[in-house]
């Protein structure tokens, strides 16, 4: 059976959703920059799995690599992605 993924684009600067539907992908469109700044992947249970940041959050020292990934993995119970 083919795996179906849904990519949703929302406008804003933060994605607060840590749980939605299985295998979802959410793109975050920054309305000021008019570009995608963030993409979030969810696992087969609909829980947040990994974030892909397409910016350095304005902190190039902390985030020298763009784009970069934030793997929620063990951090998912903390309520943030460890930025
Ligand atoms: Zn980041």
List keywords for this structure.
single chain, mainly beta, 5 strands, binds zinc ion
Task: Give a quick precis of the structure.
By secondary structure, this protein is mostly beta strands. Helices cover 0% and strands 37% of the residues.
Portion of residues in beta strands equals 35-45%
What is the global morphology? globular
| Uncertain parts | none
Mean pLDDT: 87
Radius of gyration: 13 Å
Q: Tell me the number of structural domains.
A: 1
Spatial order of the strands in the main sheet? 1-2-3-4-5
Major pleated sheet: 5 strands, mixed
Tally of separate helices: 0
In sequence order, what are the helices and strands, one letter per element? Answer: EEEEE
What gap, in angstroms, lies between the N and C termini? 36 Å
Small molecules bound: zinc ion
Structural class: mainly beta
Instruction: List the quaternary state of the chains.
Output: single chain
- Helix % is under 10%
Q: State the total count of DSSP E strands.
A: 5
Biased composition (Basic and acidic residues): 68-83
Region (Disordered): 59-83
